[in-house]
């Protein structure tokens, strides 16, 4: 099977670990950059407030 989608980079932390766990080690991750996109203003405020630390 092949699953494709677009996900913000901030949502991909622990992606490989979770994928391998859910697929009993058989899942093969492939992450490619697609594009830059403006961060929503409410999310930007959170990131700035935390000093940009994995927000």
UniProtKB/TrEMBL annotation:
Name the domain of life this protein comes from.
Bacteria
Query: What name appears for this protein in its UniProt entry?
Result: Elongation factor EFG domain-containing protein
A Pfam match is EFG_C
- List each copy of the Elongation factor EFG domain by range: 3-47
Q: Which Gene3D superfamilies match?
A: 3.30.230.10, 3.30.70.240
Q: Which InterPro entries match?
A: EFG_III/V, EFG_V-like, Ribsml_uS5_D2-typ_fold_subgr
